[in-house]
Every structure is written in structure tokens, then in C-alpha cells.
Fold:
Amino acid sequence: MPLINRLAIVGVGLIGGSLARILREKNEVGEVVGIGRGKDNLERAVELGVIDRYCHDPREGVAGADMVFLATPVCTIADLVGEIAPALAPGCVVTDGGSVKGEIVSACEPLMPAGRHFIGGHPIAGTEKSGVEASFAELYQGRRCIITPTERSDRGALETVVRMWELTGSEVVLMDVAKHDRVVAAISHLPHMVAYSLVNAVGEYDGCDENILKYSAGGFRDFTRIASSDPVMWRDIALMNRGSVLEMMDFFAGYYAELRELVAQGDGEALERFFARSKQYRDGLVAGTRS
Amino acid sequence: MPLINRLAIVGVGLIGGSLARILREKNEVGEVVGIGRGKDNLERAVELGVIDRYCHDPREGVAGADMVFLATPVCTIADLVGEIAPALAPGCVVTDGGSVKGEIVSACEPLMPAGRHFIGGHPIAGTEKSGVEASFAELYQGRRCIITPTERSDRGALETVVRMWELTGSEVVLMDVAKHDRVVAAISHLPHMVAYSLVNAVGEYDGCDENILKYSAGGFRDFTRIASSDPVMWRDIALMNRGSVLEMMDFFAGYYAELRELVAQGDGEALERFFARSKQYRDGLVAGTRS
Structure:
């Protein structure tokens, strides 16, 4: 018997499509219903065998589902949950893949009717591609998936969501909502803020008589790749995880100011220590890489 | 007739070895003498055919050379030039590959005896490997090489250095010393300062009850790769290019502070514009990539 009888996925792209693929491959889902606006993408998803059928109306799409997965932009999730809530079947579990959890979980939990459950989730996986064509069953293999239950979470619903992500090959980690938002602010949101600032600074530096970006080599391009990320998505993340992003931005600014002072003072010993500490953390990271 | 009769290379590693390889391949050098401390590396360089012979004493090694290439750490170059200056043959051209030019050029030019010439250079190339084993003839192909002549530079010496780098397949760019130091501060030194600060901040963040680096995924690792660079080398670069590094660090700090305020104010429109501007610069960079 499959874990899920009917899975409704809102947003059948890389994230939603890959989840459907692996669950189907393992025969752990009876039927998959895709929900979205774009007809072409949904028809392609049917052709590819990622979903069985689709519809554009979220309420209609979630009817009779025992699991609903929301893979839409972070700023849309709470509204979407409000819209589908009245149409959810008894016992239905709703979960999401948004990279911010505090605002989403606190908004969505109270929207759930009795006997329906919201559990926040965040699979830490992705590629630079998007759309259902880019989805593949192995996307989550060996990656971490953070699940953020609260005191209000239904134990059975939580277990089902954990089991679903374990089936994808993910390493599931349960984490407090606030801690999740700090962790991702540190390892993902902060680096994006830094990269965006860096590229703007170098791109607009006016101390030479020409744009100096043209002298950049491979190192600069690698370092700044994340500054090519979608501005709208990052606007939403910065707004929705504002508190943690600000906390981490200020925390970074302290280290940066310290380094600036060491450079200004020409303190070679302290500079070497500063760089060596960083190298140690970074090398430890690589040593700890899981394939 | 080859461009160079006898080339003396101090520091036969990736940078020095690759220069020797391409000049030999093109029959543009008569004899290559390697100079360094490590016997094993130099013997390996002979075995690999990168150099013809070697010696440990720089003065002995440069005798009779018409071109000397210094591929040692930036902080050693001025002392080295002081040491070899009395042993240089008439007409000899000395050049280097250091990534900082102001301090090096201003220190080395006055050290040259009459009829011997120093020309500063900086081939923008490299890999994560080092040592003569890692050297290869194509390292400089399609890369930029910045040459920084001054008013005192001998025109013939400059032409020879330019020609040598053109033979490697590099695109040679002549640049004012101060401009060079600003350009590399922006596209290379600043990103390193930012990456080192970021990894230290995230590595030492104490707002969760555990080290959060372990949650980092591929994106963080890619972004912070340069924080694994050699602390001693970067200490020297920060010290030697202090003025430009500080200028660029402060310039970046202005953009970062601006972004921090946009996040604090929750100004979605301005955030999207900030990110979109950055994405535009970054995407333009990739579109302009030379293969």
C-alpha cells in the first residue's frame, strides 16, 4: 500500500515534479494531481508521466487528496493555504517546500480546519534549472530536508511528512521554526545579500575611467554566480525572513569591520590568523561533504 | 632566433613552469635556468623538460640571462631584485608575476643598475594546484596579462615583455600601476576579504546551539571556495595592496549598508531593483566570457 493515495502538487516544477517522480518510482503514491496556471507546463508534466492529471483551480485540485505539497514562491503559500483550506478532505496533510518557515508556518497553522494539518518543510535541494522538464527522481538523494513541526503539529501528520521525504533519499532533520530561519539566513540568504552587494559595488565602481568588471576572471565569476538568482524570489525571501536576514547581515558586518581594521592597521599576524581560521572552517566543510 | 636566449625563472611552480613550457614549445627561448630552494621540485622540473638546469643561488642563476622572471610570493620580490641586481648582465630585463604592482614596481625600479630594466607584470591566470607538476603550456591561453610600465620604463624592455606574454596566448593589457592595484583589489582582493569574513561569521555564529556550518549545501561551498586560499599569501596581498584594498572594502561596505537598510525598511520595490541591477551586471559578465 502506498504512503499516499492522492498527492496534489501546487507548482509542478523542479521541486514539485522531482518529488512526484521519486514517489511514483517507488510506488508510494496512488495518483498525482498537478495544480498550476500554465497549461503547457502541466500538459508536459502529464506527457512526462510526472502527474496523472491536472487542473487550474486549487480548490478543485486538492479535493480528495490525502497529501498536498505546495511548491510555489514563498510569498504565495499562506494565501494559497487560505484558499484551499475549505476544500481539504478530512485527515489531509498539507506541507510546503518554502525556504522561509517562520512567517509561513505561523500563518498557515491557524488556517487549517479541524482534522486537517499543516507541517512546514524545506528540502535543501535545487539546480539552476527550473520547470517540470528539469525535474528528476534523484534530486533529493543525499540532501537534507528540514521539517519544522510546532507544538500544535499533529504527530501522525508529521510522521507522514517525514516518511515522504525519507522515501526521496533525503536526510530528514527536525528543527525549530526560528532556528531554521536563522540557519538558512546564515548559509543561504546572507551569502546572496553579500554577493548582490559585491557585484553592484564592483559594477558601479567609478575610481577608474572604465567599467572594471571586464577584467574579472573565473574566480570572480564563480564567487558571484548566486548574484544571478531571480530578483523577485530574493526580494520575497528578504522580506519574509527579514528578522533573521538582518541579524545575520549585522553579524557578518562585525567580522567584516574587524577585518577592515586589521588591514588598516597592517597587522600581519592577526590577518594571517583571521584568514587561517576561515580556511579551517571552509576546509572542514569540504572534508565533511557527503557525495 | 628565439625571443629570449637565456631565461632565468625564480620560483619554478605553476606560474613560472607554465611560462617556460609555452616558450620552449614555441622555440622562443634558448635555455631555461630554474632558481629555487627546493631541490626535489627543481629536479622534477628538469625531468619534465621545463628547465634545462637549476641552481639555488639567485645571483648565480641569473648570470648571463637576458630575461629574468620572478614567480615568488609578492612580499619576496623586492628583496629578491635587490639581491640579484648586481649580478644582472647588461641589457637584462627583469619582470614578475605578482598580483600587486604598486609597492613592487616602486621598490624595484630604483634597484636596477644602469642598462638593466624592471617591468612589472601580472598574468591573471592560475588553478587551484601549485608546483611544477601542475604547470602546462596552455595556462595563459586566452587570459589577460596586465603589464604596468611607468615613465621610467625602457621602451625596448617593455616591448620584449609584451612580446613574451603575447607568445603565451595572453591578451596583454598595458595599465597604470595604481589602476592595476585598484582593479585587482575590486575583482580579486575584495571578494577574498568578503569570503574570509563570511566563513568566519557563519562558522562562529552562536545564535543556535550548534555549529550551523554543517547545514551548508553546495551553494555555500561554491561561494566560499576562495576562503580556502593560502592565509600567508593573502596576508601579504592585504598588506602590500592595503590602500586599494581598504578603498574597495569601504566602497563595498556602502552598498552592503544600503541593502541592509532596504531589508530593514522592507522596501520590496527597491530590493527587487537592487537585486535586478546586480543580476544584470553578473549576467553581462557571463555573456562577455571568453572561452
User: Anything to note?
Assistant: Chain A touches chain B through 92 residues (CB under 8 Å). The mean pLDDT of chain A is 95. The domain at 179-287 of chain A is CATH 1.10.3660.10 (6-phosphogluconate dehydrogenase C-terminal fold).
